[in-house]
Amino acid sequence: MYLMDKKSLDRPPSPALLMLAFLSLAGAEWRPASASLEETRLRLVAAHPHQPRRLLTASDQALYASEDGGQSWSVCLRAPHAARFTSLALDPLNIHRLAAATTNGLYLSTNGGRRWQRVFRGPGGQSQCQVALFHPARRDELLAGTAAGLFVSRDGGRSWGQTGGLPAQRSILALAISPRAATRLYVLTDSGLVVSEDETHLRWKQLGTIPQRSPASEESPEDAEEAPQEPEAALAPAFTSLSVDPRDPQRLYAGTPEGLWFSTDGGMAWRAANRVGVGSAAIQHLLLQAHSPTSVYVATADGIARYRPESEQWDTVTAGLPTLRAWHLASTGTYLLAATDAGLYQLDLAQEQLDQGSWPEARDLLNDFPQEPTISQTQQAAIAYADVASEKIARWRRQAALRALLPTVSLGYNRDQDTYIASSVTTTGTRVFQTDDPSNGTDLRVGWDLGDLIWNGDQTSIDVRSRLMVQLRDDVLDDVTRAYFERRRIEVALLTDPPSDPKAQVDQELRLQELTARLDALTGGWFSEHINGGGMHGTRQ
Fold first, then answer.
1. How far apart are CA 45 and CA 386, in angstroms?
2. What span, in angstroms and rounded, lies between the C-alpha atoms of 243 and 254?
3. What does residue 5 show for φ and ψ, rounded to 5 degrees?
4. 402-432 core/surface letters (b: 16 or more CB in 10 A; e: else)
5. Does residue 2 lie within any of the structural domains?
6. The domain containing residue 529 runs over which residues?
7. pTM over 0.85
8. Is residue 49 domain-resident?
9. pLDDT, block means (10 residues), the chain with 541 residues
């Protein structure tokens, strides 16, 4: 059996090592990711969508940052006196911009967490910032949900304005934006769920409320008949968290104190998921993971559970957790992170999915590498690195055509001096004398060769160079395509049919690293920089 040391467990495993772990009898287990922290009661966790080794986690009073996937942590911000952290956000369009919401305002860092500035603190209840969100498609747009309404900044936090059309007295509990419909902003308030579909966030639409579960589902029919009837508003359970399916913008999931609910029509009508297999109905936080198929992970007081919408089944995911009370979840794409009363823990999502028997279809498997660049992105990076873009040839031709409009200019300067000899006769004799007459001159000549408007001799040179460039670009794209898909075939083989011989496994791993290095050479190191997290989807050198 191949054993991995502690250092190997702390970093994302390569595909071969992941499959070796799977072939061993040990299943997916939670492993500590905050061993270097003295504080263990953690309430929040966040991972950057494009730099998954950049993590944030927070207790009530302290915010910690890690740049190495949780191996080491440092305090980057402490909450002001009597305040606590309520939400963390990382800008998907700028890896250096971080936001931390507290009960005493919103703090922003523009240099990766080294320095922080309070950028929002309104009067009264507005200073109680409950959720922060960077817009995933509009640069410099930052949303702050407070106890007294929703505020938006479109200049990176320098100025703020309250959104119109949304009652100011509404307390904002959660914000969500569909990855496939970036103009659709869902806002979860203390009085229900609303949505805005315009970029200015001025028009809002009230969505459906979650109805109270039927008493018959929890009690006997006799007890249900005797139970006193309460007003509908009092019976409706409150939302605690909200998420949009990344593959279907019309499908929403909501966590409530009474369990998981979902909507398939954009939030107008809601249905309750069953409770069979989940310990506690009260959901603290939920997270959607878009592997095949999409799964919903929930954090409760009784641990962490996974809901599979396609089969409507629950599975507990608590192996390795020293405590059952979980507060918040995040994902790096390769790992699931959980902030608990006993610290921060991570779970290998690929191993957990395989343990649950969730083998994807072939099409889903080939598309299920979100942590890696696509072939098109890799080809464009290689073209840019080799400087063989087709636009370069077009630019040459434009410049050659414009040359005829530019004149040839010559500038001349001359300096002459004429000498005159004269004589004069006087009574005392003849006198001869010399005089100098200097003269200066300049000339400027401008000329055009109008024949260049019809044919420029440089075109012949451009044609030759363009043919060579096209040939070079084809060679580069051919090398990238072959290396990319050979690498993908090895990844899929390691997942679906890993070799049982340890030597063959090592050979496959070395070949995978060789192809990764080849793609790095063709893209100037771009490929490895854009493999987010490694694991089953890539090897990080």
1. 40
2. 7
3. -75, 175
4. eebeeeeeeeeeeeeeeeeeeeeeeeeeeee
5. no
6. 369-407+453-541
7. no
8. yes
9. 36 40 51 84 88 87 88 89 90 90 92 90 76 89 88 90 74 84 84 81 79 47 42 51 85 87 88 75 83 80 85 84 87 85 84 57 57 85 84 70 71 71 70 68 73 64 74 88 90 76 85 91 88 41 33
